[in-house]
Amino acid sequence: MENNTSSDDVGSLGENDADLNNENMEHQMAMEVSSHFNNSGNLLPSHQEASENIEPFIGMEFESEEAAKESYMSYASRIGFSVRISKSRRSRNDESIIMRRFVCSKEGFHTKRGNYEDGKKKRKRATIREGCNAMIEVIQKYYGRWVVTKLVKEHNHVVAAPTRVRYIAPEEYAGMEPFVGMEFSSHEAAQMFYYAYASRVGFDVRIRLSRRSTRDESFVMRRFVCTKEGFAPLEENFDDIKKKRNRTPTREGCKAMFEVIRKDSDRWIVSKLITDHTHDLVVAPAKVHYIQSQSEVVVLAKSCAVNCEKSGATSISKTQFGDTFGSFDVLSSNDQGSRKDTRDTCQNAFGFEDTQFLLESFKKMQVESAAFFYAVQLDQNNCPTNVFWADAKAKMAYYYFGDAVKIDTSYKKNKNMMPFVMFTGVNHHFQSVAFGCALLTDETEASFIWLFENWLIAMCGRPPISLITDHHETMTTAISRVLPDVRHRLSRCHILSKCRERLSNLYFMRGSLENNFEMDFSNCIDESETIEVFDLQWRSILDKYGLGENSWLQFLHHMRHKWVPLYHKDTFTADISLTEKPESLSMFFEKYFTRKTSLQVFIAILDQAMAVWYEREALEDFASSCTRPTLRTPSSILKQASEIYTRVVFDVFQNEFEESLGYFTDKIEDVGVISKYNVTKSEDPRTYVVTHDSSNKRTNCSCCKFERSGILCRHILRVFLTTDVRVLPEQYILKRWTKEAKNGFVLDECVRYNDLACHVIRYAKEGSSSPTTFNIAKQALQMAFAEVLAAKKDIARRCPM
What we know:
This protein is α+β, with helices and mostly antiparallel strands. The chain has 23 helices and 26 strands.
């Protein structure tokens, strides 16, 4: 028994609402991009699904290599470039392909060829390759899925959305006409063939009908039709005064169609076919070129960039930073007029006077404090585009509390805000602390790489344990390159705020407790204790609210390991989320840091804000050292904690201790010195497993609160009471939460590190200027490094710790 799902397109846009899986839907959106343009080549208003096309990202998963290829070429057709396969790798076991690399067709360079033997010169051909580095690489993992492991999205040439996309079939189908009984290896291959055939003949295609198997939900039938199939519904006037604008009818009852079904051998066969159309076809292209490389070019996009090159005009496109949650804002500028001088060019970034003030302020700060660090990224006119700085207090704060870092990019929510970025964390009072600031006007991947590299230098080369950001594709890629070992996760608050925007109709829907989407969604995210439970509840929500085909939720599920707490509950984050509400910087930034604010005023306000932070921290330090908290329960563990922890942290610990008194323990395993307990509460159905090792006093809990926050959970504390542990083991007291958190730091270490880093950068530039200098520099560096290691050993021998 099989399940039928029918859909139809809407209006003149040819939007497809067929039953598609996630990867297939991306491809279908790209296939119909040509019908989203009017006759003049201008983009027509798109529907909601079309605006939610998922951009590629590292970690993205696909069911097959074909699905990965289809998705990337869909993305290429939307952006405006062509794709080819550059590299493959096969398994040594069965010779199957386990890696594919897809690149821009302008990747690499053509080899130069000399004269022929008869002295005649070869006719110069138009240069196709320009050394573009854009690429995506997918690898098949052991569990069968294909995962994106490498991604470069930046192009070194102009790209633009295509005015029309032509799909060129693989050469085995070149010029073939469809016929009943024709076989394909997959429904994606059949789809690609029919779209290529339609492009060659001169009509557009959409998916009209799909059927899935009731056994495994896989496709068993796909029907493709002409976009002029059917008839558009008649539309009534809005009222007697205002009439709806008459639109040109796009449907003419065309019967042309192409249906494929899956046979038992997993081959797809054309079962129904109508090739006659009831309307005139667009003039087919005079000639189709099949370009050969290591593989075939499947999508060729004829974009306005080609026309610009032919006319001799230079078009510079700057893609302003965006993310999958929103659209990309593309700013284009023509450089045909006279060149502006350096002063005018700088005015576009910060303003000439503001730039001078900023640089002079930084130089002054560095003279006053050798620990002050700043870096400026220059454009081609030697004008600042991005700036980063960190003072001595930021470095000291990072030394104490830099294990968990959050990057605040509140300005992305408001186009009128100054592009201000701040690296923040929490101190031992759960107060926000700053680890450096930046102004970003150029938000490419290269700029974010530059930012993270300089921030790492300023922080003495010590990466954090975890890094929390909002979701931005370019930033994510830069983090994976500069900080590959850091546990990067996405802000849960940011994700939920986007959910509230995207699913507002469900969030504000009035209903009973049994039909409360917000409650169900929150419980699924926050209360799931295992991956199996999370997946079960997620599918239950999709079924309950009819969201199985919602592309936004499909995208979130693909990224679940980045933002769902369950997937990173063992990662230390210092519970930064606790400070997001009371100390959010968004309102402060929106009020003071607008694009109209001069840099002089901006720096003054920022200094005042930081002074307030430092004063607040100093007051809390004084209060923690001079006062003693009230013990609500007599306990030796609480007394010990009150003497060690700061007041705020002790309040959190004391709350956990009190909550532990309401739990029960049940020993479920006892093997030598290792015991396991089920810890439960009568009104709570959840069970937590605590493992206690009496020999080394090691205890861990399945909730992983200590691993995440550095503060013991109520479940472990309950087991401590059961096993008569009266003193907190030393390994469960993190110094960063104690009154002594800021003892033992030597600022000179950072000063020395920064000084050496500057010399190393200059050394590398000079040493890499030629092969000869490179060899000399490398030998000298190896000798110097050996001397440094010998000196460290000698110091350790003479002055043992």
